Amino acid sequence: MDINLATLLRLSLKSLANRRLTVFLSVLTIAFSVALLLTVERVRTEARTSFNQTISGTDLIVGAPSGDIQLLLYSVFQLGNASANMSWKAAQEIAAMPEVAWTIPLALGDSHKGYRVMGTEAAYFDHYRYGRKQPLAFAEGERFDKLYQAVIGAEVAKTLGYKIGDRMVIAHGMGRHSFKEHDDKPFTLVGILKRTGTPVDRSVLVSLQSIEAIHVGWGKPAVQDLRARFSQKQASGLDESTLQPQSITALLVGINKKTQLFQVQRAINEGKITVSGKSEALQAVLPAVALQQVWQLVGVAENALLVVAGFVVISGLVGLMSVILTGLNERRREIAILRALGARPVQVLLLLVAEAFMLTLLGLLCGSGLFYLLLLVAAPWVYELWGIWLPVNFFSLLELKLLAVIAVAGLLVGLWPGLRAYRISLAEGLSVRL
Amino acid sequence: MSGKSIIALNQLSFAWPKQAKPALQIDAFQLNAGERLFVYGPSGCGKSTLLSLLAGVVVPQAGQVEIAGQRIERLSAAQRDHFRADNIGLVFQQFNLLPYLNVLDNITLACDFSRQRAATLKTRQVSALSEAKRLLSRLLLPEALWQHSVMSLSIGQQQRVAVARALIGAPPVIIADEPTSALDHQSRDQFLQLLMAETQDSGSSLVFVSHDESLKDHFDRHLHLPSLNQATVSQGGL
Hints:
The complex is a heterodimer.
Chain A: H1 5-18, H2 20-54, E1 60-63, H3 68-76, E2 86-87, H4 88-96, E3 100-112, E4 115-120, H5 123-127, E5 129-130, E6 134-135, E7 138-141, E8 149-152, H6 154-160, E9 167-168, E10 171-172, E11 187-193, E12 203-207, H7 208-215, H8 223-232, E13 247-248, E14 250-255, H9 261-269, E15 274-275, E16 278-279, E17 283-285, H10 287-330, H11 332-340, H12 345-386, H13 397-428
Parallel strand pairs in A: 4-12, 8-11
Antiparallel strand pairs in A: 1-14, 1-17, 2-13, 3-4, 3-10, 3-14, 5-6, 7-11, 8-12, 9-11, 15-16
Helix pairs in contact in A: 1-12, 2-10, 2-12, 10-12, 10-13, 11-13, 12-13
Chain B: E1 5-14, E2 24-32, E3 36-40, H1 47-54, E4 62-67, E5 70-71, H2 77-87, E6 88-91, H3 103-113, H4 115-123, H5 128-138, H6 155-167, E7 173-177, H7 185-202, E8 205-210, E9 221-224, H8 225-228
Parallel strand pairs in B: 3-8, 3-9, 6-7, 7-8
Antiparallel strand pairs in B: 1-2, 1-4, 4-5
């Protein structure tokens, strides 16, 4: 009873090929909008993944009271600056708590050619975890164990082209061209870390004592400083034990038992940490909770971007619909011919729906291609700028769902012209005369 | 051949939607198998309405339309479309062909839409393509054009391709709606001769509609539609 669908599809394809210019343009519009949508979605999720994977295994981040998000951002993501420091003694108090398994002190504020310098301890290499609780690994060299030794992240090594044994100068403050360079105290590169896909890749790691050493003689010219500066003149005569830091920026803390986590957090937040008899105001945040707060903040902007991209896709589909509708008037004759040959009005409708659907599919295909091309081209650049690595993976489930929704929308787009064609074929029958 | 009814109209009355008065009212009319009928009359006398009824695009509000033994007013819309694909070859005034198919594909398309036509060819042990080629050479269309786009053909050539499509698979009825009106005098005569010869060859009956009475002499039977149509007010000739 029914003529086969293959005939209709064949006709539809030939008809499309006959109108290839207009068809090409509407496919192009859809392709661009699909690529935009996919890109927004991919950047959004990868930014999240990248952030979520930056820190794992750390139970608490402790710093001077500011805000949960601020503390997380400057201590782990190298975004923004600390407004205040915490005392080194308080850090030692926390490390001595029976519930605390390990601590990693972080001293920030210096830079090397735009990359952050992070003063820390060997514990950093032992306890810092990223991604799925992966430890840091060395591509070359080893961890620092003396003054004026530095370990750099993979990105720093790649961009600056450094090798083990190279000498580098550290500047005070951030920025590529700092006026205050500690150039009388060059560092030796002793290790290069493997790529992690986190801000660690863009860090220069040195010991806390090194940080302290380069700052001796900076700031207020205290008697102590002058004395230290004098002693410094005698080359590496600096004794590490005399270079204990006064303060650090933040402290990453690992807890023995997860059940003790909130207890420790409360103790720190409630000022139970005392330094020479006085309680020190500190803030301890759970990384996951602080991240959640970041997402709540960023979520609005993310959704706005997605909505805009969604509207671009809709406008692409509306454009397709208008192209098909406009073409319909010129194709009344075609409809009459098909009717004369025995095509049913439903089949005429189907023809137009198939057409819209195939164009949408083509748009999806081209858009996906464009998306991957964009990903390949832009990924290194995005990484350089924001430290977010965009992997060239197959579509995620959510992306596939978005594509499926667009495909279904393509079917619906064909439905309106299809219904019009259906009505035309019923009302005009075979009697169209042009 | 004669005597066997191929088209029979009985007590037929039809009005287009939203029209108060009927466009066509015919008490009785019969066409026998193999007959070639010339239907003429001025514009608006109901010619197009008659063709729409015969093609099963519309059904009468009252009366019977019997084609090849089938009461088509009793069929569903889908069944009528199917019936038309199998039993009726249509040739329009102009623009009969799909611009995006070549000459041969336009012709074989009729078989794609009709299993019966395809089956008829099969019993004769010919393929749709070879039958299309046979018809084209009978209709004197140069072989060089067969693979061409139909847009590169002259109107006369296009009309002959349309005849080949109507005739493929030998449907019992060929309906031609002013197929010569866009042709010049010379190609019109040639077209008519070829049409006559080929419908006779396939054994199909022909209903040929025109306002041009000078073509009358080519046909066995003539029908002056205004004389048969009892609907007094002429309308509906869309």
